[in-house]
Amino acid sequence: MPPHRHAYRPTVMGARGVVTSAHPLASMAGIQMLQAGGNAVDAAVAVGSTLNVVEPFMSSAGGIGLMLISRGRTGERHVLDFIGRAPGASDPAACTDDELAGGPKSCATPGNLGGWLAALDRFGSMDRARVLAPAISLAEDGVPLTFKNVEFFDKARATLARSQEAQRLYLGNGGPRVGGIATYKELASTLRQVAEGGAEAFYRGPIARAIARAVREAGGWLTEADLAGFAPEWREPVAITYRGWQVLSVPPPFSAFQMLETLNILEGYDLESFRHNSVDYLHHLIEAVKLGSADRLAYAYGADVPIHGLLSKKYAASQRARIDGKRAAVSEGERHDPRKLAAQIGEGHPADFMHEQTTHFACADAAGTVVSVTQTLGVPFGSGFAVPGTGIVLNNILKWMDRDPVSPNVLRPGRKAGTMMSPTQVFRDGAFNVSIGTPGSYGILQTTPQMLLNVLEFGMSIQEAIEAPRVRVYRDRLIDAESRIPAETRSGLAERGHNVNVIDDWSWIVGGGQGIVRDPESGALMAGADPRRDG
C-alpha cells in the first residue's frame, strides 16, 4: 500500500493558491509570482517560460499551446488559442514523411511566446520583466539536470542530430549527466529582448529575422511573413454536463470533443459498480474511446464540426448502444490510415443530433482565478532544429498533419494542426472544482478522462487520480497497459479480444498529468503532479 492512501506522493495543499507543473523549479517560479502579489495568470506565464529552461524537450517559445482561464469573481471563462499555422509555403507534395517528422520543414509558426504575452496583457497584473525573470535567471545561471531530464535528452539524440545547433545546446560539454549544470545564455538573451520589446521583438524584430533566415537556409518553409502574421485568438470554451458537474475544455478546431464524447458515453454506465480498473470498467472505457476517436478522425478537421451533435446526450446514447460489453471492437487507430481494417469502427452520425442543445500545468490564486495550460513542441525537442543565437528549438507540429490528399487533416498553407491538447476544468453549481490536463499527443484524449473519472467517480484525491495506472488505445484491438494494472485484469481484457501490450509501471507513454482540486466547503486548494515526469 502506498504511504498516502493510494498515492506515493502527498497531495500539496494551499489556502490561497497552488501551482502544479512538470518541474519543481517551474512551479516555484509561479509560486514566487503569487507570493509577490501576482495572480494566477502572472504565475502561469512565469511557469510556461521557466519550463522552456528546465523542461526544454517539451516546452519552448518555439512551441504552441492552449490556455483555459476561469475567473472566480466574474464567472468569466476563456480559451486562449496560441496554435501556430502551417507556413504559407508549405506543400505536402514537396516533402517526405521524414521531413514532416522533424527538421526545418516540420515547424508550424511558434505560438507559445505570443500566447503567454497575450494572456498577461489581458488578465495579468505584473509586467513582462517580472514574470520572465525566473526563466531568464535560470537560463543564465544554470539549472541542474535531473534523472528524467537526462533520460529525455538521451532518448532524443536522433531528433537532436537534425541540427548542429541543437546538438551543441543539449548534448555539448561532454553530454548531459545527472547533476550537471546546463546553461542557456542565448535563450536568456532572447527572453530579455522579449521582456523589453514584447511580442513585437519576437515576431517582427531581430529574433523573427534570425528564425526565418535559419529555417530558409536549411531548406524549410517558415518566413518572416508567417511570424509577423501570428496572432493568438480568444475563443469560448465547449462544455458538457456529467452527473451534475459542468466539464469545460477547448472548442473546435481542436479535438477535446473526443474526450467529452467519451465522458458522455460512459455517463450511461454505473462505473462505480464496475470498480476502478476492473475488466468491465476498462473494457467499456476502451470501447468508448474507440467511438470518440472514430468521430475525431471523421469530423475534427472539417470546416464545420457538428459539435452540438457530437456532444448531445441522445447521440451519446446512440453511440453507447454500439458497444459490445463482452467483445473488443476494431479501431482505425489514433490517426488517419488509408488502409482500412475488416469490421473497423466507423464514425457515428452526429448531424442527426445537431438540434439538441447542450506540457500541462495549472495555477490557482486567492481570488478564484484558475489557469490551465497545455503547451507542446510536438515530440521531445520538436523538430530538432535549433536557431543559432536564440536558444530556441522549433516545434514539429506539421508532423500531426498528413501528406495523403484524401485525409481530412491534409497539410495545407495557413492550416492549424488538429491538436489533441485539452486543458480541462470542472465546475459544480458555478464554482470551480477540478483542473486537469496532460501532455501525450493522441493519448491526451484518453488520459484526461481516466484521471477525471478517478476523481469524479471513484473519489480519489487529485494525487491518487494522477498516479493511478492507465491504458492507451491504438489501431485494431491493441492497447498499452501499465504493468501496475493487475495481471488478472489484463488477462480478462485479452479474453474479450483486446491485444494487451504491457508497458512500464510508470510510463510517460500514457502522459504526465497535473491537476488541482478545490474543496467545496473550505475552499482549500489541493494540487497533484505526475511522478511519470519531474512534476
Low-confidence stretches: 353-358
Form type: globular
What gyration radius follows from the Cα positions, in whole Å? 22 Å
Number of strands: 20
Distance between the termini: 22 Å
Taken as a percent bin, the fraction of beta residues is: 15-25%
- The number of distinct helices, counting runs of at least 4 residues, comes to 20
Multimeric organization: single chain
Strand order of the largest sheet: 1-20-19-15-14-9-8
Judged by helices, strands and strand pairing, the structural class is: alpha+beta
Query: What is the helix content?
Result: 25-40%
Q: Main beta sheet, described?
A: 7 strands, antiparallel
What does the average pLDDT come to? Answer: 93
Task: Give the arrangement of secondary structure elements.
Layout lengths: L11 E3 L3 E3 L3 H12 L4 H15 L9 E7 L6 E6 L14 H5 L10 H12 L4 H14 L1 E2 L2 H9 L1 H4 L3 H8 L9 E2 L2 H13 L1 H5 L2 H12 L6 H5 L4 E3 L2 E5 L2 E5 L7 H10 L4 H4 L4 H21 L7 H4 L2 H8 L40 E4 L5 E7 L9 E2 L4 E2 L30 E5 L2 E7 L6 H13 L5 H6 L3 E3 L4 E5 L4 H9 L3 E5 L10 E5 L6 E5 L6
Parallel strand pairs: 17-18
Antiparallel strand pairs: 1-20, 2-10, 3-4, 3-11, 4-7, 5-6, 8-9, 9-14, 10-11, 12-13, 14-15, 15-19, 16-17, 19-20
Helix pairs in contact: 1-2, 2-4, 2-5, 5-9, 13-15, 13-17, 13-18, 15-20
